[in-house]
Every structure is written in structure tokens, then in C-alpha cells.
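Exam prep: given the inputs below (a chain plus NAP), describe the expected output before reading on.
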Amino acid sequence: MTAPYAGTPFDLTGKVALVTGGSRGLGARIGLGLARAGADIVVASRDLDSCRHQAERITAETGRAALPYGVHVGHWAELPGLVDAAYERFGRIDVLVNNAGMSPVYDTLESVSEELFDKVIGVNLKGPFRLSALVGARMAAGAGGSIVNVSSGVGVRPRAGVLPYAAAKAGLNNLTVGLAHTYGPSVRCNAVVCGTFLTDVSRHWDPEAFAARAATFALRRGGQPEEIVGTVLYLASAASSFTTGALITVDGGQP
Ligand SMILES: NC(=O)c1ccc[n+]([C@@H]2O[C@H](COP(=O)([O-])OP(=O)(O)OC[C@H]3O[C@@H](n4cnc5c(N)ncnc54)[C@H](OP(=O)(O)O)[C@@H]3O)[C@@H](O)[C@H]2O)c1
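Solution:
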């Protein structure tokens, strides 16, 4: 297989990247993109079969090794097992991509249950916190590394209808800056503040309402999943060696 970034600061040859939510959507594209740049990949999500399928695809398309792992990132006690499995298989983690997330719809704010609220905070904030602590400490004690948090524009500009999710992503943005200070200088931590990407979640949207919203974007459309890869690869690699604690917006120019 060719190494398209060999000899450039984007090269990840010999590196290992752990991608949560790596089985589908943005995470699947991120895993493939980092593998194309030379990294071996840990593909983590709840559904182990989907992770296995995606890991096989990564190896078939890039020649890189890929470890599938079933885990619920909102379950604190499951996370050490994920990190240990990655170190047992590869001996290192150089890049952690906290990508797993969910933003369930609800009718009214009063109808949001404690269970739903806790789940949204658990997957979007608690999981990235715990994983970053487990991996960041080992990175800092070893060869260093890069943590990339996949956040959302609503964490900066909340909209009605997604408030627990928006609050969780705002927390993730805050955590991004704090992690950069905690594990720097050898570990960098940045966030990609995503606008609207056309993944599985977009199947639940009203097409007319989305078209009306997209007409207000500078690029007049939602993003294709592969359009997040360049930014994550930049943040994961030495190409961004003086960038940490940054929130980088990738949203096609959403107002
Ligand atoms: N798409 C957008 O427009 C958009 C906009 C802003 C931000 N984002 C953010 O981008 C990230 C990826 O979104 P996406 O659109 O790619 O979502 P997606 O297509 O729904 O995929 C979500 C991924 O996360 C995994 N996942 C969900 N809950 C999990 C859990 N509790 N534990 C472990 N893995 C879990 C899923 O696999 P399993 O079902 O197997 O667990 C899947 O691999 C999220 O953090 C999301 O908030 C997306």
C-alpha cells in the first residue's frame, strides 16, 4: 500500500490512534483517514460486530492493523479495559479521538428525563473526560500524543431542541482547553467544532427544514463525512505541533 503522507508532517507511520464511535459516521471516516496516513487503529463503539466490520475494512483498504473493541463510553468502569486492550495489542496510543456522541431529540425541555440527561452527558462529556485522563496520563508519561475531541457548534451557539447535548459539548470544549494545560507540553488537545454533517443522524431530519437551514450556510450544504478527515489528521499529526487548546470550526460557514 502507498504511504501518501510519507516524508510530510502529516505522516502517522508507526503511530496508533484510538477512535471512539469508530464504527460509523464521522468516526468511520476518521479511522480510515488516519490509517491511510499510516496509523494502526483501535475501532471502539458499543456494537462489536460493526467495529469488527470497520476494522476489516480499514485493513483491507489501507493495510494497517485495526483492533475492534465493544464499549459504552458513558460507562466509566468499561474504559480502563479499552485502554488496556489497546496497549496490550499495540504497546502505545499516540492519538485519541473522542468522537462517540449522541444527540437524542425530545418534545419539550420538561419532558427530558433524568435518565436521558445523564446518558447524553455520559456519552458526550463523561466518557471523553475519563478516557482522556486514562490515555493522557500514559501519553504524558511516555512519548506524548494528541487528543482530538469531536464537538459541535451548538456547544458554542446553543439551539432550542438540543440543550443537554449542547451543554455537554460546551463542557467538552472547556475540557479541551483544560486537558491541553494538564497534559502539556508533550500531549496536545484540540477540538473540532462540527457543523452539520450528513451521517446517519441526518436521516431523522425533515428534508425541507434542513434545506432551508442549509441555504443560510456559506457553502449552502451539509458536510460529507470525509470532509472532517483533513482537520482531524492535521490535529493528530505533527502538522499542528504548535496548536493546542484550540477549537477549530468545520461547518461550511454556518451563521
Ligand atoms: N453529524 C453531525 O451533523 C454532527 C454535528 C455536530 C457534531 N457531531 C458529533 O460528531 C460525532 C460523530 O457523530 P456522527 O454524526 O458520526 O454520529 P453517528 O453516525 O450516529 O455515529 C455515532 C458513532 O458513535 C458510536 N456510539 C454512540 N453511542 C456510543 C456509546 N455510548 N459508546 C460508544 N460508542 C457510541 C456509534 O456506534 P454504536 O452505535 O455501535 O455504539 C457510532 O460509531 C458525535 O460526537 C457528534 O456529536 C456530529
